[in-house]
Amino acid sequence: MMVKVLIPTPLQKYTKDEATVEVQAATVAELLDALETKCPGIKPRICDDSGKPRRFLNIYVKEEDIRFLDGTATPLNEGDEVSIVPAVAGG
């Protein structure tokens, strides 16, 4: 399935300054691998050594946080939009 990934500005240096990237994937885990294939060096910025998304990044599928779905096993459908959003903290 072709899926659109919205890339945050700090990671766009891995996507040749593109704000969106399209990849084929059936799950979020496959999407992360496909993103690494298409944009070498990006996956270690998104995932820790065990392959799980880093705590300071949120990943949304159709505006739903994958932490409240099936995590990286969350299924994707043709045309889905996946957003990678850096967490914001402050006081």
TrEMBL record:
SUPFAM superfamilies: MoaD/ThiS (SSF54285). Gene3D superfamilies: 3.10.20.30. Pfam families: ThiS. PANTHER family: SULFUR CARRIER PROTEIN CYSO, SULFUR CARRIER PROTEIN SLR0821-RELATED. This is Molybdopterin synthase sulfur carrier subunit. It comes from Roseofilum reptotaenium AO1-A. The lineage of its organism: Bacteria, Bacillati, Cyanobacteriota, Cyanophyceae, Desertifilales.
